[in-house]
Specification:
Length: 155
């Protein structure tokens, strides 16, 4: 099955799971293998528990004519391809942080910048502020003003 057809199945599911003990109704189960387990052996259990489809990579686990099983060459590779395809469809940007020192600090600084922008954008929508200014003092003052005008939220 090509990735675009698989993506359409994914879009019709409620989520993705690799754990047959946690299969929400309508989810897509992907059978992964490890040193001590073979997820293919749990595909039937995943479908019984509520998964809509099971992606497996061993034909021995696929009952003849059951369309709820999707047989692929490699389940892990299929999961990776599906995730990559989905990310590209969303247009999500990725920031890679590498190096020996400073990764956690850099991650936290980047996160703080995004939070300031998110709060500023939310305040624009909530309070109808016309001009977006993401300086921390502006965000703090606007957010504090919003909370002050809604005392019930802070009580």
């Amino acid at each position: 099955m090509d990735i675009t057809a698989l993506y359409q199945i994914f879009l019709g599911c409620t989520g993705v799971t690799t754990d047959s003990r946690n299969c929400p109704k309508g989810s897509l189960f992907i059978a992964l293998k490890g040193d001590n387990f073979n997820g293919n052996a749990f595909a039937a259990k995943a479908l019984e528990a509520g998964s809509a489809y099971a992606i497996v990579d061993e034909a021995d686990y696929v009952p003849a004519g059951d369309t709820h099983y999707i047989l692929v060459d490699n389940s892990l590779r299929t999961l990776q391809q599906l995730a990559n395809y989905h990310r590209r469809r969303l247009g999500t940007r990725i920031i890679g942080i590498t190096g020996t020192n400073g990764k956690t600090t850099t991650k936290e600084l980047i996160s703080a910048v995004f939070v300031v922008d998110i709060v500023a954008a939310a305040l624009v929508r909530i309070q109808g502020i016309q001009q977006v200014n993401s300086r921390p003092d502006f965000v703090y003052n606007a957010f504090h003003g919003f909370l002050s005008s809604h005392q019930a939220l802070s009580d």
